[in-house]
Every structure is written in C-alpha cells, then in structure tokens.
UniProtKB/TrEMBL annotation:
<dbReference type="GO" id="GO:0006352">
    <property type="term" value="P:DNA-templated transcription initiation"/>
</dbReference>
<keyword id="KW-0731">Sigma factor</keyword>
<keyword id="KW-0804">Transcription</keyword>
<protein>
    <recommendedName>
        <fullName>RNA polymerase sigma-70 region 2 domain-containing protein</fullName>
    </recommendedName>
</protein>
<keyword id="KW-0238">DNA-binding</keyword>
<dbReference type="GO" id="GO:0003677">
    <property type="term" value="F:DNA binding"/>
</dbReference>
<dbReference type="InterPro" id="IPR039425">
    <property type="entry name" value="RNA_pol_sigma-70-like"/>
</dbReference>
<dbReference type="GO" id="GO:0016987">
    <property type="term" value="F:sigma factor activity"/>
</dbReference>
<dbReference type="InterPro" id="IPR013325">
    <property type="entry name" value="RNA_pol_sigma_r2"/>
</dbReference>
<keyword id="KW-0805">Transcription regulation</keyword>
Length: 189
C-alpha cells in the first residue's frame, strides 16, 4: 500500500490518519537507522523525525513515486542521526559489522557483571512510577521484536502515552543512576 494515501488527511491535520501512517511507516524508518543503533539514541531520533514529518507534511509535494512521505521521513531521520553523530563524534557501525557482532557466539572482552551496579540499577528501577516502569519493562522484554504500537496496545496505552512513559522512565532512571555516581551519557538525552 502506498502510504501517501494518508497524505490528504494528514495535510488536513487528521491525527488519526497520521497515527495510521506512523504505525505503518515507523518500522521502515527505524530500520533505516539500524547502522546508527550503537552510537545514537535511535528512539529519540525516530520520535523527533516523526514529529518533524507531522510539521512539514502540509508543505510536502509528492514526486509521483510511492511512499514519498515515508522517504522524506527516512531522510529526516538519517539527517538527524548524522547530526547527532557529529555532535557526539561517534562512529556508526556498518550493517555487515553489526550482523557479524550479533551472530558472534562468543562475546569479546565482556567483563563479568558488577553485582553493585546490578543492585543500583534494580533499586533505581524499583523507584520508577508504575506506568513508566511498565513501558520500560515492555520495551526491554520485547528485545526489539515488537513495535511500540503493539507494546502500547498490550499495556492499554495510546502510542504517544507509551512513548512519553518510556521517555520518562529513561530520564528518571538516568537521574537515579547519576545520584549514585553512575554517569550514562546515552541515557541523558
């Protein structure tokens, strides 16, 4: 299905139509950011890209090829990821390198888990409010196999509410860890 079919309703600021478009486009946009997964917060880049698509959609002019708005969203997402790379001076991982690492049965140079760190993480996790903790736990349990829309539905939340709860959980977890002297810059965005 050409997702540009939703464009007239999106231009008319129909949030339901945008939600349907987003549910179908999000996976492709997320996949386009795969090589950046180890060096940028892909979730925040994706959310920002979706927000920007919503804002620029009324000015978007289709080029006649299918899924023009999706292609624009992918371009926006990749540009945001590149900007984030430049800001942090990180290096993206090539797809073949990522596949090799994921397929590698023997972890390389992985240290044994720090029991004190595990304890602090568990304490901070337990302090999270219920809804943000549920969103975080759902995302962790899914191990990236489920779309956020499905996770939100399983928790009885709207997608936007789920994403807000997940973002709040990350923020609160990072704050708690910082109070314990553990700085994790990738959680601070």
């Amino acid at each position: 299905m050409d997702l540009d079919a939703f464009l007239p309703a999106i231009v008319a600021r129909d949030t339901r139509a945008f939600g349907q478009w987003m549910a179908r486009a999000e996976g492709r946009m997320r996949e386009s950011l795969r090589s950046f997964a180890t060096v940028v917060d892909v979730e925040s880049v994706l959310q920002e890209a979706l927000l920007r698509v919503w804002h620029v959609a009324p000015r978007f002019v289709p080029d006649g090829r299918p899924d023009g708005l999706v292609r624009l969203g992918i371009r926006i997402a990749r540009n945001l990821a590149i900007s984030e790379l430049r800001r942090t001076r990180a290096r993206p991982v090539e797809d073949d390198e990522l596949e090799r690492v994921m397929a590698d049965d023997e972890p390389s140079e992985v240290s044994s888990p720090d029991p004190m760190l595990r304890k602090v993480i568990a304490e901070c996790h337990d302090k999270l409010p219920e809804k943000p903790r549920q969103a975080l736990d759902a995302r962790v349990r899914s191990e990236g196999r489920s779309e956020d829309l499905d996770l939100a539905s399983q928790l009885g939340m709207r997608l936007n509410t789920f994403l807000q709860n997940f973002g709040r959980a990350r923020r609160l977890l990072a704050e708690c860890l910082r109070k314990h002297g553990i700085a994790l810059p990738e959680l601070e965005t």
